[in-house]
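Hi support team,

I've been running sequence recovery on a batch of backbones for a student project. Most finish fine, but this one hangs at about 90% for roughly twenty minutes before it completes. I'm not sure whether the input is malformed or the queue is just slow. I've pasted the structure tokens below so you can try to reproduce it. Let me know if you need the job ID as well.

Thanks,
M.K.
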């Protein structure tokens, strides 16, 4: 706005003119601050829309995962409503399996653990698994999921302006999400993860967004734990929406076979 409006009027200009200009300025519309729900709405629209997301009934993601040199291999993860998940990761000739039935039970088969048999998920895993298995994401219908959100304002990340949104899940764990202020796509989230009874910081970065049936997905996901050597890189090769999945995929997995096959999704 022209700053001259708020200076003293030149000689001969009635003061009433200045008063009228000040009143007019007060009535002019001002840009309203963004609300958390407005940011959420734009984030969901940027992905393709809440309606399209909710229309997906199942999903299969295949690609490669790396935990560092010498510890990488193929993976796939399958999701089905409500919150069911089946994941397999193969490192060398050994396959890790994680399964959640979408209700209250989960199982892990880890050939790198001391006990190589199928084990029930521990309390730390179960605490986070429902969020992990929710392929809608925590922001869609966040209130009905018991989540709370707070807009922390704008910041800068990797040379770009971002909106910071803090989400507190129903388990009380806070996470901070960073959304590109121009595209409203997720670029980073950070929070804490409980492992072996210890809280460790985790940050995850999202990039290489591509469109699949009108919805946008990050095809590269990089995670690390600041202050530690832990790292993880996921490179997605393919995302299938609404594949046919057998309900048995989300039940307790069978005992390990004598020879471990490479991780690959079952034929459709």
């Amino acid at each position: 706005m022209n700053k001259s409006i708020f200076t003293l009027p030149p000689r001969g200009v009635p003061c009433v003119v200045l008063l009228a200009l000040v009143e007019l300025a007060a009535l002019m519309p001002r840009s309203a601050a963004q609300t958390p729900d407005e940011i959420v709405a734009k984030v969901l629209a940027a992905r393709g829309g809440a309606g399209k997301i909710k229309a997906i009934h199942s999903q299969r993601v295949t690609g490669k995962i790396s935990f560092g040199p010498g510890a990488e291999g193929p993976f796939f993860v399958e999701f089905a409503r409500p919150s069911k998940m089946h994941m397999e990761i193969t490192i060398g000739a050994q396959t890790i399996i994680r399964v959640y039935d979408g209700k209250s039970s989960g199982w892990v088969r880890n050939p790198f653990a001391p006990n190589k048999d199928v084990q029930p998920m521990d309390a730390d895993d179960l605490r986070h698994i429902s969020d992990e298995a929710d392929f809608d994401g925590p922001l869609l219908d966040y209130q009905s999921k018991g989540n709370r959100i707070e807009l922390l304002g704008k910041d800068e990340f990797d040379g770009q302006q971002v909106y910071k949104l803090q989400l507190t899940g129903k388990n009380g764990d806070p996470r901070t999400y960073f959304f590109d202020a121009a595209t409203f796509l997720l670029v980073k989230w950070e929070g804490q993860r409980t492992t072996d009874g210890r809280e460790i910081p985790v940050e995850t970065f999202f990039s290489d967004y591509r469109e699949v049936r009108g919805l946008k997905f990050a095809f590269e996901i990089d995670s690390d734990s600041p202050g530690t050597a832990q790292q993880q890189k996921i490179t997605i090769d393919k995302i299938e929406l609404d594949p046919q999945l057998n309900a048995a995929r989300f039940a307790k997995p069978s005992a390990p076979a004598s020879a471990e096959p490479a991780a690959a999704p079952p034929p459709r």
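--
Follow-up from support: It reproduced on our side and the slowdown came from queue contention, not your input. Residues 36-250 form a domain with the outer membrane lipoprotein receptor (LolB), chain A fold (CATH 2.50.20.10). No action needed from you.
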